[in-house]
Predict the 3D structure of the following.
Amino acid sequence: MATLKEIGAELGLSVTTVSRALNGFPEVSEATRAKVQETADKLGYRPNRIAQRLVTGRSGMVGMIVKIKPDMSADQTFFEILTGLTAALSARETDLVLAVDQEDDPVLSYKKLLERDILDGFILNAPVMNDPRVDFLRERGIPFVLHGQDRPEPDYPTYGIDNAAVSADSVKLLSQLGHTRIGLINGELSAAHANDRLAGFMASMAALGLKADAVRNEASLESHGYVQALDLLSRPNPPTAFICATTLIASGVMRAVRDRGLKVPGDVSIMAHDDALPLTRAINFEPALTVTRAPLRDACEPLANILIDHLNGTPARDLQVVLNAELIVRGSTGPAPKEE
Amino acid sequence: MATLKEIGAELGLSVTTVSRALNGFPEVSEATRAKVQETADKLGYRPNRIAQRLVTGRSGMVGMIVKIKPDMSADQTFFEILTGLTAALSARETDLVLAVDQEDDPVLSYKKLLERDILDGFILNAPVMNDPRVDFLRERGIPFVLHGQDRPEPDYPTYGIDNAAVSADSVKLLSQLGHTRIGLINGELSAAHANDRLAGFMASMAALGLKADAVRNEASLESHGYVQALDLLSRPNPPTAFICATTLIASGVMRAVRDRGLKVPGDVSIMAHDDALPLTRAINFEPALTVTRAPLRDACEPLANILIDHLNGTPARDLQVVLNAELIVRGSTGPAPKEE
DNA sequence: CAAAAGACTCAAAACGTTTTGGATTGCGAA
DNA sequence: TTCGCAATCCAAAACGTTTTGAGTCTTTTG
C-alpha cells in the first residue's frame, strides 16, 4: 500500500522523480534510481492501477464474449484460449473481462458491455464469414483483434493460420502418396475457418484434376466423423484418404474405417488438423495421426500482444499475422492402395 | 464522454451539486435534480468508473478462479455460473476477472491474482472440505463469498443449499414409499457437497434403521451411473431405489435399470438432485424424474449480492445463507415392489 | 424582531498516478 | 567572467469523481 509520495518522503525526493525512476526515464541519475528502487522494494510498493488508468485514460481491461450454443455445451477450445489469454494479458498488466452471450443478436452483448464504458478493446474469437461483430466494432472505432480471418482483406488486426493452406498442404501430401479419392470431413460451415478449409480443399483438388465429391461439413464431434466416414466408405468408389477438421473427428473416422474391416494406413489414410488440445492428442492415436499442427495455445500470447500494441498506436496493417500450420507426417498416412 | 464538470458548466452549478443530484442525495432540491438529470441525459453522461474507483479506493472487480481438471474438461456447471454471475455483478457495477487454475497448489492462482492488487474480493466455487483457499484468503483478510459449505461453522459469507438435507429428504420420501434398500450414487468425495450428501444419507438411513451398504462416490458421469447401478443391481438383494447426485448420473442409472429388464418406477425408483442444468433436464426423462431441485442459476445473483454487500461492510454472519432444495415428486419414484 | 433551524449550494481537498514546464546545479567553452 | 548546455530534479496541473466543511439564503420559532 505504499505510494509514490511515501517513497519520496522516505528519500527526500519528489513524486515526479520517484515515478520516473521506477519507470526507467532517462533524466534520473542511476544513483537515485537505485535508491528509489531499493526503498520501493523495501516498502513493497505496487503501483495503483486505478490511478494509472485514470490518468492515462485507459481502463486496462479488454473484453471477450463467449458464445454459448443453445445446448450450453462448452466449446473444447474455450478453456484452452481462456487459460493462455489471461496469462498473456496479465503479463502486460491487462485484465480480461468475460461476458457470456446467449442472445440471438451477435452484437447485443458487445453493445451492453460497451455501455459500461470500461473496456479498451475486444478479442474476437471463432469468427463466422463477414462477422457482424467485426462490422459493429469497426463502425464505432472500437479496437479489437480477430482470431482468424472472416474476410479477404481485413483492415483490422488479425491473427490466425492460413486455413486454405492447411487443406492445400493436406491434399498435396495425400496426392503425392498416390491418393486420388480424398474425402474432407469438415467442421460446420458457419465458422469462417471451415469455409477456408473447404475453399482450399476445392481449389487444390481442382488444380490436381481430382473430383472433390466426398465433402461433409458438420459439427466437430466424434460421432459426426464416424457417421460421415461410414457413409462415404459405403460408396462404390470410396475415398482412400480422409482429411479431418479436428482430431476429434479423426477419431470417429478411424473408428468407422475399422468397423468396415479396413486398415489404417494400409487401406485408408487419415489425417487431421490438430489444434493441440489436451483432450484428443494426435500422438495417442494408433497409429499416430498425421496432422497439420497449430496449437491453439500458441495463439494466445500473440493475440494479447497484438491487441495491446494496437491500443498503443501500432497501425492495424502491421498487426495482421497469418501463419502456416506445421505439417507433421506420422503413421496414419501411407501410399494409396493398389487398385484391383 | 461528458463529465460532471461539463454538466455543471452547462447549468451554472458546481460539480458537487451535480454529483449529489445524480446520486440522489437529499440536500439537493428536486428542481435542480430534474435539470441536472435532464442535461446529463442530453449530454449522454456516464460516470467514469475509474475515477469513482480511485476515490472510493475500490477497484470494482472481483475475481473467480476456475479450476480445470487435468483432462481440460469443462465442468458443465461452469458456464451456468459464469453466465448468471457476470449478469448479476454487472447490475451492481462490478466486473468479473477470471483466471484459470492449472496448478497443483490450489492457492497459487489466488496469490498471483492478488499480487496484481486490483481485486476487491473473490467468489469461491466448488469447495472441497476445509478448503485451503478459504484458509488462505481468511488469513489475509481478503473478502470472499463461498458457494457452498466447506466446514461446520464458517465465519465468512456463504451461500448454498443444505446438502445433508437433500439426502435426508430423498431418503425420507423413498422410505415413506416403502423402500428399505436404497442406493446412493454420489459424486466424487473431493467435493464438499458430496461429503454432505453422504453424511446426510448415512445419518438418515441410520435413523431409520436401514443398512446403507449401496453407496458409490465417483465423478458425475453418465457412465459412472450406469456402471455402478449395474453392479449394485447384480447383488443378491439389490436396491429398489437410487438416489443420484446429478441428473447426468440418473440417466446412466436409468439405462442400467432398463438393461436389466427392470421398470421405472415399478421395479426400481430413481431420484436425483437437480441443478437445473439445460443439458439434462429432469422433466425430459421418461418417466419424468423425481428430484430435489435447486437451480444453480438461482445462486448467481445472491452470490454476487452477498459479496458486494460484504465489501460494503455487512458483517459475515448476516451473509450466510443455507437454503433447502425443493422436493419435486414426479414419475420416476413409486412404491417399493412387493417382496416375493 | 432577532435568533435558530432548515434548505440548498459551493469551494476545496482527496484518491495516486503521469506529464508538463520549468528550476537548479555544475562544468566546459567563449 | 559569462554563457550555454547537460544532467538532475521539482512543483503543479491534470484525470473525474466523492466527500468534507462551510457558506448563503429562506423559513420558522421564541
